[in-house]
Amino acid sequence: MSIPGNIHAVQARIAAAARAAGRRPEEIRLVAVSKTVGIERVREAVAGGVTILGENYVQEAWGKIQTLGTTAVAWHFIGHLQTNKARQVVPHFDLIHSVDSLKLAQEVDRQAARCGKRQAVLVQVNTGREPSKSGVYREDALALLRAAARLEHLEVRGLMTLPPFFDAPEKARPFFRQLRELRDQYLQEIGPAGGAMELSMGMTGDFEAAIAEGATLVRIGTAIFGARP
Ligand SMILES: *Cc1c(COP(=O)(O)O)cnc(C)c1O
């Protein structure tokens, strides 16, 4: 299928999963993950209705942002972020999904101050406690949320997770649920004035399960662009 056709199909699946969970489809936003995808195909996705692009690698993203600009699409940084790369990421991205230490939060805050912006961020949680994955463990998530929320140039918008890989997506549900419970705990703590909190969870293989557990941002690459090399 064409890229616009794939986007249409993914959006229909998102809407169906939302309705099945008793949610409104508008509560869920699609982040099209364009890592390794060439600029012409990314352009097709934007023409096909994508409004958020997710990128993992600073250098690669840079070139695309320069070519496509920041008016038609929002750019989300979803990859592992090293502290010494924050300087290159902060000026160009609307949302960073992968803040996983106080040291990184402080550096993002510092770079945001330098750019005269407030940087929206999510705290990444390693719900599966996998050594190969980034993210704080669940018992440290609330402390990091609180500390990040105190930084003047950060806007804490929620949580992100990348659960362990399973062949059956239903098996990922407890990890998605864990993220939702952390979010709800934090919301209870900060009260209604804190506003809504995003849950960035769900990829090509498991986004319907993530939506059933409350995802508000789904990050989808393969179902839109095909398999990566
Ligand atoms: C690559 C990537 C995705 C997209 O994965 P697909 O399985 O291709 O949909 C989502 N989130 C993160 C953090 C990624 O690195």
Give keywords.
binds pyridoxal-5'-phosphate; 8-stranded parallel β-sheet; TIM Barrel; 229 residues; globular
Describe this structure in words.
This protein is of the alpha/beta class and 229 residues long. The radius of gyration is 17 Å and the shape is globular. The protein has one domain (3-225): TIM Barrel (Alpha-Beta Barrel). Helix 6 (138-149) packs parallel to helix 7 (173-190). The protein contains 9 helices and 8 strands.
Write the layout of secondary structure elements.
Layout: H1 3-20, E1 29-33, H2 39-47, E2 52-55, H3 58-68, E3 74-77, H4 86-89, E4 95-99, H5 102-115, E5 119-125, H6 138-149, E6 154-161, H7 173-190, E7 198-200, H8 207-212, E8 217-220, H9 222-225
Parallel strand pairs: 1-2, 1-8, 2-3, 3-4, 4-5, 5-6, 6-7
The site of pyridoxal-5'-phosphate has 12 residues, from strand 8.
Mean pLDDT: 96
How many separate domains?
1
Question: How would you characterize the largest beta sheet?
Answer: 8 strands, parallel
- Based on secondary structure, the structural category is alpha/beta
Secondary-structure element order, N to C: HEHEHEHEHEHEHEHEH
> What order do the strands of the largest sheet run in, or round the barrel if closed?
7-6-5-4-3-2-1-8
Which molecules are bound in this entry?
A: pyridoxal-5'-phosphate
Strand content: 15-25%
CATH architecture: Alpha-Beta Barrel
Q: At the fourth CATH level, what is the homologous superfamily?
A: Alanine racemase
How helix-rich are the residues, as a percent range?
40-55%
